[in-house]
Amino acid sequence: MMKKKINYNYGECEICNTQMKEESIKQDFWIRGKLIVVEDVPAGVCPKCGEKVVKADVGQSIFRLIESSERIAKAPKISVPKIKFVVEEARI
Ligand SMILES: [Zn+2]
């Protein structure tokens, strides 16, 4: 789904030197013990290794969004799977 034209050059991936592509991504944050997902975040994504880069001003906008407890209280909730780490099962 094409929403916006690419309007920012994210340059090359720091890890594998592949040209980054602009995509809308989901970013997750833990705020005061709660998981918050921010959707439609414009970011540079490496098509080869999946490395993500977010512009500084976008990062600041996200920070303001997730600092608003009123906005978070009104936001729709999703449920996520939660599993406990078990040493025996994690060992292959
Ligand atoms: Zn890469």
3D structure, described in words:
The protein is of the alpha+beta class and 92 residues long. The chain has one domain (21-90): Ubiquitin-like (UB roll), CATH 3.10.20. The chain is 24% helix and 27% strand. It has three helices and three strands, in the order E-E-E-H-H-H. A three-stranded antiparallel β-sheet has the order 1-2-3, covered by helices on one side. Strand 2 (34-45) and strand 3 form a beta hairpin. It starts with 20 loop residues before the first strand and ends with a helix. Zinc ion binds next to loops.
What is this structure's SSE topology?
Elements: E1 21-31, E2 34-45, E3 52-53, H1 56-67, H2 69-74, H3 87-90
Antiparallel strand pairs: 1-2, 2-3
This protein binds zinc ion.
Zinc ion binds next to loops.
Labels describing this entry:
92 residues; alpha+beta; three-stranded antiparallel sheet; 3 helices; binds zinc ion
Biggest beta sheet attributes: 3 strands, antiparallel
- The CATH architecture category equals Roll
Radius of gyration: 17 Å
Roughly how many Å apart are the termini? 39 Å
Helices, by number, come to 3
CATH hierarchy class name: Alpha Beta
N-to-C SSE series?
A: EEEHHH
Portion of residues within helices:
10-25%
Q: How are the strands of the largest sheet arranged?
A: 1-2-3
Q: Please state the structural category.
A: alpha+beta
Mean pLDDT: 89
Query: Rough shape?
Result: flat
Low-confidence stretches: none
Number of strands: 3
**What small molecules does the structure contain?**
zinc ion
Proportion in β-strands: 25-35%
Oligomer: single chain
Write down the domain tally.
1
CATH topology: Ubiquitin-like (UB roll)
